[in-house]
TrEMBL record:
UniProt-listed InterPro entries: NMT1/THI5, SsuA/THI5
Signal peptide residue numbers: 1-31
Full protein name: Thiamine pyrimidine synthase
Top-rank taxon, per record: Bacteria
Species this chain originates from: Antiquaquibacter oligotrophicus
Subunit note: Homodimer.
Amino acid sequence: MKHTAPSARRRRIASVVAAAAAVAIGLAGCAAPSTDDAGSGGDLTPVNYQLSWLKITQFGGFFAGEAEGFYEEEGIAPTFTAGGANILAWQQVTGGAALLGDEDNTLLLQAIESGEDLVALGAVFQKSPMAIMSLSEDPLLEPSDFEGKTLAFPDNGIEQYTAVLESQGVDMSTVTVVPAGADPTQLVTGQVDGYAGYATAQGAALELQGLDVEYLYFEDLGIPSYGNVIITTKTNLEENRDLIVKFLRATVKGYEWMNANPEDGAALVVNEVNPTGGLDLETETAAAGIQADLIAGENGVLRLDVDKFQTIIDSLVEAGTLSAPLDAADVVDTSVLDEVFGDKTALLR
């Protein structure tokens, strides 16, 4: 099924409607819209979605969903609010500034452990793009390769990483861990032997420099993880279920389109969604190609598996990141995407 992008005029009209509705919501204290208002009188219902990071290609499915008219077909005018280093998406959701958002699984689970009314509905990445990147002349391909090496690693998740390597017999006293910079220069210049980051971001940048990069994904290292877990509150889901189903139906279509059209999707992000963001088209195109396999799933894009989520929880408890076990069945609600897909595994074919 071929969808063409809405005309510029239609996009401007939708933007005006969304902006006006967003102002109205702001005056009402940023409350989530009721499903009773969705599509009434032909108007579009505004939905604010909080991104966990900047407007880059990993979120291309959302932007494609808007450009291809999938949200409009569901009666929705979406707003995608960029995240950043000092923004926690879950706080924007629990505070009412956004109806949905996406969050790191660890941060989500820590928030739930602290008593926040959050639930996971899906995930952009079926397999997290987080990986240990190394150069082919001195690759890190299995746990034993880490001994005697220096690794750049972000602060978040270091306990879990350490626990997994120790459980596999690695003497961590021989491994030097330093903070990871925002780009993988440390690896290029030989300051470190491995760099922990996103294959779809830092990995793409390395490959475009002509370097032969090896990836050891955290999942393959024994650290189960999703990437960009889609969340809302249980209250939001109860009060706005129909609207959330419609939003995720459009999002599924957006990511299916993005995976089928990575070059066009990257161009959309660079040239239309974030033209002032300093994004490089070649890098974003490479990222779109890398991420497609990580987003695709046997049962459809965005899907979550309760058993896998329980494994994630258990591994975080073992690492000491969570103080007590949580029941994944209380954390994950698969019924929304079950309703979206029905008996299908794809919506655009």
